[in-house]
Amino acid sequence: MQHLPSLTRDIVLLGGGHAHALVLRMALMEPIKGARLTVINPGPTAPYSGMLPGHVAGHYTRDELQIDLVRLCRAAGARLVLGHATGIDRAAQVVRVSTANGEREIGYDIASVDVGVTSEMPGLEGFAEHGTPAKPLDTFADRWDSFVQAVEPGEKAPVVVIGAGVAGVELAMAARHRLIQAGAEPQVHVIDAAEALPGLGGSARARIFEELRNQQVWVVENTPVTRLIEGAVVLEGGREVPARFVIGAGGARPHDWLTETGLALESGYIKVGADLRSLTDKAIFAVGDCAHFTPDPRPKAGVYAVRAAGVLLENLRRVVAGNPKLRRFKPQSDYLKLISLGDKSAIGEKWGVALAGPRVWKLKNRIDQNFMKKFTDLPSMAEEAGGEQALCAGCGAKIAPAALKQALKALPPPERDDVLSLPGDDAAVLAMEGDWQVITTDHLRGFTEDLALMARIAAVHALGDVWAMGARPQAALATVNLPRMAPQMQARSLEEILSAASEVFRAEGAELVGGHSAMGAEVILGFTVTGLRTAYPVGLEGAKAGDALILTKPIGTGTILAGEMQGKARGAWVSGALESMAKPQGAAAKLLRSAHAMTDVTGFGLAGHLAAICEASGVGAALKLEAVPLLPGAAELATQGVRSTLWPDNRGAAAGRIILPAPLPPEAALLFDPQTAGGLLAAVSAGRASALIKELRDLGFEAARIGQVVEGEPLITLR
User: Fold this and answer.
1) pLDDT tens-digit map of 253-267
2) Could you confirm whether 395 is annotated as catalytic?
3) Which of 9, 236, 301, 339 is the most exposed, fewest CB within 10 Å of its CB?
């Protein structure tokens, strides 16, 4: 019997806006059968704009208004690609994306656009140097927090908000409240080239103007801003308004790249029909502020995106299932507008009726908190597995060190004269005429659904043994295992994997020359890599008493990946760990070629790999625990007791080889954390250590001197 492929269509969601976030939340409960969901977003989180004024006022922390897309995508079984969408090639059906690792293309069968709008003002002279757009939120929040912290008590703090719509007025009152709480003397202006607060009912508008007057927030209407200069905003006519912080909240506009898609647009916004599909291309949907709903144009407001999510999800299901009859979206004719007034007070308006006061703020807060709970109350993989911790991937899935060591002992020594290494070395060393060749292989169970990023990490991981021996990467063979999917999806997946891996290898002077592919239950990626070295390769056995120990990358990847699987790791921690894993170390390896001994820190953890150097070299090591660099979030998760599934075996294998304090501090627990694509650990002459660390840091590595080699038994002691 022939089995149909499990996956048949690629659905790509451009942007992590409110509608797409809700689609993911609903798909978590009932997945879209046959679809692979991909989300493209600039960062690991997406802000909930309804709580932004509360954050500016100091009522909410940054985390409280961020939708953690890493956690959400993990729970929904979707892959998250971190990058900016820069275009859509509709003929080739690919989305162009700019990522930290360069430009890439992601294929789609169906795409949905929910990228919102931008508050940047490129046409306003001086805004780039002296202004801050309210969107994207992360940049704005960072600059605002820095400004508030820099203001001294009693100091005048002039703030100007450009744009007197509801959003601008809310931000102005919120900024005033926060500055008063900080002990400063706020001077806040809201400026607009047109009339302030358009679209609000008369009674609500009048009450907000009264509140602005009471708070001494000055509104300047029908007066364009001509330019920004240091310390001031210059208005038409030459008047200068003092400003130490300028917020761009007006003139929200669509992203420029939409004009190059060839889609029908209305003032730069994608024109969609009642089914939320583009009027130009039935393979593309659009929702949220970036869309123009042609049957009944609506204002740009998040409530419409929230209401559209259910219709979008159902229509995606129907398209994948081949059902041509799609649902129609019917937006509400009016909605309850809840506007913050700075302190914990708000005004609500609907159908021309307005109410104000603390009770209205409590209503708004309850609505906002209930919305965010949809994205914080998510199941973890442990809950899905009946309470047991799921097996970790990456190097957390390695065979236990004791079992591996026992199996390797049973292998006979090499009989060939040109095979010079023993089982258990970082890589095999082969004698060649005029050169030495090293050969290694490494494979990883997938831990991120972003196949290109997974391929980069797997390539960096496989190269680790070659770099650790001071060799020059030469060639690589790939082994790729993919789950069942339709042929066109297989082709897309293989192209993503091989293109990304080839980029890594070619940048290091090696070539990806072929390999083997198969289908199975899960993603497994690996590479066999060869390298060359004129001098005999660096091994584990050359460390000398007095040598300094240098580590080129922070540790904690196993704990963070385990924390993600348990729903305890923040998206920013996960994305930071993935970024660290994907960082090649060829440049670091070149600097460390003269090391007396070197290895890469991977599955057996820092303690296990340092112990291997000590045993091979017949020396001990003194480790300075506080000097060991840690990935953000690793210590917090370790304190919570989060451990990779390989951790107990690593800890047990270290018994008798490391002297630990009691009780064990969280940072010490991370010494046994299995690393994926971890740093190089090198024993170098103490006199060269400082210079090497400076050079490594100049190259962008978080290198640190973590201890030294000492005489005596092969024991590790903590200092």
Assistant:
1) 889 999 999 999 999
2) yes
3) 236
| CA 12 to chain CA mean position, Å | 17
Q: Euclidean distance between the first and final Cα of the chain, in Å?
A: 64
Amino acid at 424: G
Q: Is the pLDDT of residue 391 over 80?
A: no
Tens digits of residue pLDDT in 610-664: 999 999 999 999 999 999 999 999 999 999 999 999 999 999 988 889 998 878 7
CATH number, domain 9-116+254-329: 3.50.50.60
pLDDT at residue 404, as a whole number:
65
Catalytic residue among 73, 290, 392, 395: 395
Q: With beta carbons less than 8 A apart as the criterion, state whether 677 and 461 touch.
A: yes
Predicted confidence at residue 1, as pLDDT, reads 32
Cβ within 8 Å of residue 601, ≥6 positions away: 551, 553, 555, 609, 675, 678, 679, 680, 681
Q: Does domain 127-248 have CATH number 3.50.50.60?
A: yes
Residue 9 identity: R
Residues of the chain with CATH 3.50.50.60: 9-116+254-329, 127-248
Determine the Cα–Cα distance for residues 283 and 280; give it in Å rounded to an integer: 9
The CA distance from 301 to 252, in Å, is 12
DSSP label at residue 632: T
**Per-residue CA distances from 492 to 84, 225, 476, 486, 498 (Å):** 20, 48, 21, 10, 10
Residue type, 69: L
Model pLDDT, residue 582 = 97
Q: Where do the CATH 3.90.650.10 domains begin and end in the chain?
A: 539-719
Is the Cβ–Cβ distance between 312 and 276 less than 8 Å? yes
Name the fold adopted by 539-719: Phosphoribosyl-aminoimidazole Synthetase; Chain A, domain 2 (3.90.650)
Question: Taking the CB of residue 82, how many other CB atoms lie within 10 A of it?
Answer: 22
Q: Which among 28, 18, 64, 71 has a CA at the least distance from the CA of 369?
A: 64
